[in-house]
Write a structure and sequence with these properties.
24% of the residues lie in helices and 26% in strands. With 348 residues, the chain is an alpha+beta fold.
């Protein structure tokens, strides 16, 4: 397999061009970039730093699955398209696997399952790229990205240098990382390394997995878990190729135990999950559903009829339409439950 982090080639020039971004964001929002480049070779990174110094701003774009784009994106847009997956080491306690930042996340997870490098199967069908995964610190069905993370290689755009980063450097938190708080456009994630546990054990604590027919009998394999997660997600979530969406639009809010207890006393059906620190994660989809928003729309922006966490582009929606709906939902949940929902996507 190819080396995703090879950077020893001679520098390669970049020439910005105009680009329609409508098909490069999963919400399908009509958007144009006046200056756009594709990064498919790490040797282009010095040229990117030169261009960024001349531009008003830099937007680093992965799979476009976690972003709300305006009709015209100012400054420079750089799409990360580095490719490559390889096994670095088979240690007694873990498979050490590296993937390039431009690899499709689901495709990478599927390749790991195919090769017997188990541990990421619960994160199947999460949209986006490998390089975007640490930015959002993605998680699904009981597995968080940072639990499988080893290290990454990133290009510091203003400094013009390659940096190796460990978990402490990334400052991972729930759907959060240092990359979300540093200056926009500072980092291009070139490659990510994962430590996938040996021996492998399935993570089946999520209720949907506990009930799934593939997993309730015998000893499920990683392939069984992968297939079950794919079936569950496809039943619940719209395909962005058919209906524009950015996946889960809101984070599940985390509240103190006394807040959760007070809410549960007033709303007996409240869905919540205790966290290691004693706080509780509330199910944002349940809160939105209880406020009557599932299946509703405001103009061209709507709430998915099977999953209230997902906002959809019903056709011709703009960023203003999506965010107007998001604000209306936030207000409804805050008024009823006293809880503020925080959007997951980056709003440009």
């Amino acid at each position: 397999m190819s080396n995703p982090a090879a950077t020893n080639a001679a520098p390669v020039a970049l020439t910005p061009a105009t680009q329609d971004l409508t098909r490069l964001n999963t919400l399908g929002l009509a958007s144009q970039a006046g200056a756009f480049v594709t990064l498919d070779d790490p040797a282009q990174l010095p040229a990117l730093s030169d261009l960024a110094r001349q531009a008003d701003s830099l937007l680093v774009l992965g799979g476009g699955s976690n972003v709300v784009l305006p009709q015209r994106v100012p400054g420079l847009v750089a799409r990360v398209a580095f490719k490559g997956v390889r096994l670095l080491e088979a240690r007694p306690d873990a498979w050490l696997v590296e993937a390039a930042g431009g690899e499709n996340w689901h495709g990478f997870v599927a390749a790991c399952v195919d090769n017997g490098w188990d541990g990421l199967e619960n994160l199947a069908l999460v949209p986006g790229t490998v390089g975007a995964a640490p930015v959002q610190n993605i998680g699904a069905y009981g597995v968080e990205f940072d639990a499988r993370f080893h290290s990454l290689t990133a290009w510091d755009v203003p400094a013009g240098r390659m940096v190796e980063m460990r978990a402490d450097d990334c400052r991972f938190a729930y759907r959060d990382s240092a990359f979300k708080h540093d200056a926009p456009g500072r980092w291009v994630i070139v490659s990510v390394r994962f430590a996938l546990p040996r021996p492998w054990r399935p993570v089946l604590g999520y209720p949907d997995l506990q009930r799934h027919a593939r997993l309730v009998q015998g000893e499920p394999t990683a392939r069984d878990v992968f297939d079950a997660v794919c079936e569950i997600r496809r039943a619940k979530l719209p395909d962005p190729a058919v209906t524009g969406n950015a996946g889960s639009f809101f984070k599940n809010p985390i509240v103190a135990a006394n807040v959760r207890d007070s809410l549960a006393a007033h709303f007996p059906g409240l869905v919540s999950y205790v966290q290691p620190d004693g706080r509780y994660k509330l199910a944002a989809g349940w809160l939105i559903d209880q406020c009557g928003w599932k299946g509703r729309a405001l103009g061209a922006a709507g709430v998915h009829d099977r999953q209230a966490l997902v906002l959809v582009n019903r056709g011709g929606a703009t960023a203003a339409d999506i965010m107007g709906l998001a604000h209306a939902i936030q207000q409804a949940v805050a008024e009823r439950y006293g809880v503020r929902l925080e959007p997951e996507p980056v709003v440009v």
